[in-house]
Amino acid sequence: MLKLIVRNHALLQYALNAIAEMGRSDAKTNQFETFPDLYPGRRGSMLPFMARTMECEANYILSKDLTFFFSLHAECMQRARQLGGKTPTASVLANAERVFDMGSILPEDAQSLFSDLDDSKAEVWFQRADEVAFSILTRQVQIREPLLGLQTISELLPHYVENPVVVGIILRLYLLVGDVKAARRTHIRLEEVAGPDSIIANIHRGFLFVADAEYQKALSQFEKVLAKEPYNMSALNNAAICHTFLRDAQKAVSFLEDALFSKPESNLNETSVFNLCTLYELLSDKALDRRRKVLQLVLDHAPDHFNLLSLRLPTGQLAPTNHPPIVP
What we know:
Number of domains: 3
Number of helices: 17
Strand content: under 5%
Mean pLDDT: 82
Structural class: mainly alpha
Low-confidence stretches: 93-116, 319-328
Radius of gyration: 22 Å
């Protein structure tokens, strides 16, 4: 996992070699039932499914090719059907929520991956297929391929289209495509499944107003959310953007500084840091000093995979990270 975070090509290849040395997950030596005295009654692979997803992630970073994820998804679906499964149900939304939040995205949801799952159950393989599909969708959003994202939801995740989080993702993908009419139609559906006064409906109504350059109306929607959740980072980021377009950039700075410096453990994310540092650059002759304070905040509280380029510091101004270099 550390080698994936560093994203150095030599270390990624080293990680792939380490995964290969574990052997295939279906190899006899990796099966619980091969050792009945040690694991009475246990069946399936001793290797966690995360090893497979990490292998896909390493290959994707090296090649920018999602084929590895698609192949793993097909394998999960095949295993589920071999075990008698018929129709997958919407059961896992951890990755979907990360897509919606657009924060720092991890390869997979560790809590579900380290659960004690039974490989002999079809629903376990359907769940794994969904996790892989959301990983595919996450990367399509990251590389700004909204049409591919819509196709992934349609073909791999149709059983989630009644879930408010996924309906919100669909709306945002339509906005990225530039199809505001389709986004409005999707918002009607979002109101039906989540309620017209729900937080997710208000946020996405604000997005629609932003798309129409109606920044004051958009701001009122984000403020409704913040009245219920003062540190909703999606609402805070977009409220700051609205204040900037309404010619009150200093208030936008205050919004973001309050959120990041008062609760850095939960509120630090690359989008907010990038927005704040961009505003510093526009407003302050002491922008570099202020960005260095944000850098220290990031080094003290952000996870290792946080992208320091979001601070917009000049080349050579980045402080060393707070952990020693990792070598093979």
